[in-house]
């Protein structure tokens, strides 16, 4: 059988997920982000058109990576038959546990990309789409809970709760990035305590949970 030459090699056109995988691998291998789409495409046997078919820029691709993290977590949760029967508190706990498992599977990339620039806000810019998704998910939880409450007096504010969940996520993200415990067990504890605190705040019984969370954070800070 005649050997195939380099020019006769059939090149498979990349899809959106392939571009994400190649980009993440590039970042980890070179410990830097690509300088240009042209060079990135050429180094990976594709054309600029192959890239721009799915993403308008590296910035768009970076945001899409976080979208994929979110989608992967949601897919895992929804495959569970028990998830639909969970309370809103249990659903949010499950979401955070699952999402941080996804992040842990990609920890090297996440740590790099969130520490790349000296200005923290510039690193967080890639989370804009994720913020919308997490807030939307949080709103569905509150809407579900409010549907069971006939009096508006007892209904919870969707905007405040959704923004609170986003701020909670940012806190947990920073905690996870700094977590040196085995299997990130401390992050699991932080997730449990913070979610319970958020729901108790909305149930008007916050004191015990707030004190409990405060003691835990103090212990972690002083360890």
TrEMBL record:
Pfam assignment, any one: TetR_C_23
InterPro entries (alphabetical): Tet_transcr_reg_TetR-rel_C_sf, TetR_C_23
Classification via SUPFAM superfamilies: Tetracyclin repressor-like, C-terminal domain
Domain Tetracyclin repressor-like C-terminal as annotated: residue spans: 91-217
Taxonomic superkingdom: Bacteria
Protein name per Swiss-Prot or TrEMBL: TetR/AcrR family transcriptional regulator
Organism: Christiangramia sediminis
Lineage: Bacteria, Pseudomonadati, Bacteroidota, Flavobacteriia, Flavobacteriales
